[in-house]
């Protein structure tokens, strides 16, 4: 029979040989998962910065072109007495409140409602859970189920559209199927009044993906044509996405006779 000292040594050896390495592996695994999540978030941030940089470049290029044409008109007139610039691209309407310039699309009640809906604590937490499974754990199946549950329990049109958009994205990342396409087609039917926190109608995100896939082209074309003729103020983000979609449709021959969007209204 082993002595107490021998048994103690055996326990110590067991802890050192089995338990300690297992604990180290668990810690390393947790750190690896955390690092993967950070890398994914960093990539998303880089993609967003790249998109913003490209949008900024396009804005600057367009403004420089407008400036050059206005200066050409002024040079021809040889006079600065007239402030009536006949250029159709020049529109600036805003008001000043407490020393701050308030742009028209910032006063859109839809935008305020979207931000309130998406900031709902319970909704936001469940969305974070889905994104953690989708990006941190690379578990698209679990993420899709979470988004389906959120979609079922949504309490506003904005939450409904946002959850549907994330569900479609998670399904598309796993495999493009008829089910995935159908979710995007459903998102395409979202009313134009339902926008995200940047003022972009959720239907335009669906149109973007369906255009890439060359799916439901007639539905996309009709939706884009209806978006062009809306008369309310739009955010720059919505305008640029709409412009790119119209350009893509034009190149594919899907939208004939549709004018381009050059102003904010």
Question: What does this 3D model show about the protein?
Answer:
With 265 residues, the chain is mostly helical. It has a domain of 158 residues: Alpha Horseshoe (Serine Threonine Protein Phosphatase 5, Tetratricopeptide repeat), CATH 1.25.40. It has nine helices and two strands. The protein has a two-stranded antiparallel ribbon. Strand 1 and strand 2 form a beta hairpin. Helix 5 packs antiparallel against helix 6 and helix 8 crosses helix 9. The longest helix has 74 residues. The protein is elongated and about 100 Å long. The C terminus is likely disordered.
Instruction: Please state how the strands of the largest beta sheet are arranged side by side.
Output: 1-2
Q: Report the uncertain regions.
A: 77-83, 254-265
Number of strands: 2
Structural class call reads mainly alpha
The CATH topology annotation of the domain at 95-252 reads as: Serine Threonine Protein Phosphatase 5, Tetratricopeptide repeat
